[in-house]
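From the methods appendix. Each design record in this collection lists the tokenized structure first, followed by the designed amino acid sequence. Records were kept in a plain field format so they could be parsed without special tools. The example shown here is representative of the layout used throughout.

RECORD:
FOLD TOKENS (305 positions):
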């Protein structure tokens, strides 16, 4: 298990120390069939009506590969990157994507393992059952992947509904840890939740309960919505079972997201939309790199407060 430091491979140890001690943020490049069309539209590519998932994901990988190959996308500012599972079987710069990230860029690779959200029930959207999870985890381990990420969403709802989200997240997290990977637990509170502050306080209490049940050699990461109350998740930044606490942008634009993040000391970014804001398929390489560099610098600065 990655949390048991005496049993780490040399690669795992290097990745663990990078995530524990490094300065920077995590890029979320895990857009799937549901979120890819919107990401591509913002990039200036309209997915043809009726296009199948394979076509959409091919276009999405071209965008992701351009980002990862940019000189601005380096370990000087980035600690890790979260990949869509299908990206593990694709190449960047003539190498497998996870191999390129870690062995060329020095960026720790993670993989998204959830397969989407179930319909909303009682104000929350749980994860759909994850088929063939054990084989995906084995494949990830064989490709220098350090950890995983899975997302649920709290749109409203009472503490009892939020409890079901947290319980499911930690149940899957235990499977991930048993396979030797570090899970990023992401119970997103929608920024449109009418009771966002109350939901975040309830979520924090329930996550704390679960963290205290983990064994000494179990490590997780948390990816949480930027809270309404600054510093709400400070206790997790210091928790011995939490490797890092990351923030999702949740639909906030880059200026709003980085401003909120800078006020939550110890949290680092794990942004998707805020990272790619301003990028366009029609930009020259120099224009593209300049826009990405500005985004990376702003998110980095907010992540090291």
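DESIGN:
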């Amino acid at each position: 298990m990655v949390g048991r430091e005496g049993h780490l491979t040399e690669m795992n140890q290097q990745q663990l120390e990078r995530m524990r001690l490094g300065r920077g943020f995590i890029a979320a490049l895990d857009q799937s069939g549901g979120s890819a069309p919107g990401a591509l539209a913002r990039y200036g590519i309209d997915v043809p009506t009726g296009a199948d998932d394979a076509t959409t994901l091919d276009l999405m990988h071209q965008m992701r590969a351009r980002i990862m190959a940019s000189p601005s996308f380096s370990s000087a500012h980035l600690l890790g990157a979260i990949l869509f599972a299908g990206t593990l079987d694709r190449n960047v710069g003539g190498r497998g994507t996870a191999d390129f990230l870690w062995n060329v860029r020095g960026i720790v690779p993670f993989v998204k393992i959830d397969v989407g959200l179930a319909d909303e029930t009682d104000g929350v959207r749980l994860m759909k059952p994850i088929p063939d999870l054990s084989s995906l985890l084995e494949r990830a381990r064989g490709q220098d992947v350090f950890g995983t990420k899975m997302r649920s969403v709290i749109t409203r709802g009472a503490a009892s509904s939020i409890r079901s989200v947290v319980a499911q997240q930690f149940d899957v997290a235990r499977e991930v840890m048993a396979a030797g990977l570090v899970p990023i637990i992401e119970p997103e509170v929608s920024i449109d939740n009418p009771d966002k502050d109350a939901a975040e306080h309830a979520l924090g209490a329930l996550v704390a309960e679960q963290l205290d049940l983990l064994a000494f050699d179990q490590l997780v990461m948390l990816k949480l919505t930027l809270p309404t109350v600054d510093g709400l998740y400070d206790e997790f930044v210091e928790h011995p079972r939490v490797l890092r606490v990351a923030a999702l942008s949740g639909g906030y634009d880059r200026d709003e997201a980085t401003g909120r993040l800078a006020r939550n000391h110890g949290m680092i970014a794990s942004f998707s939309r805020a990272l790619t804001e301003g990028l366009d398929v029609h930009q020259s390489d120099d224009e593209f790199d300049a826009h990405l560099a500005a985004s990376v610098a702003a998110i980095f600065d907010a992540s090291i407060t």
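APPENDIX NOTE: The two ends are 31 Å apart (CA to CA).
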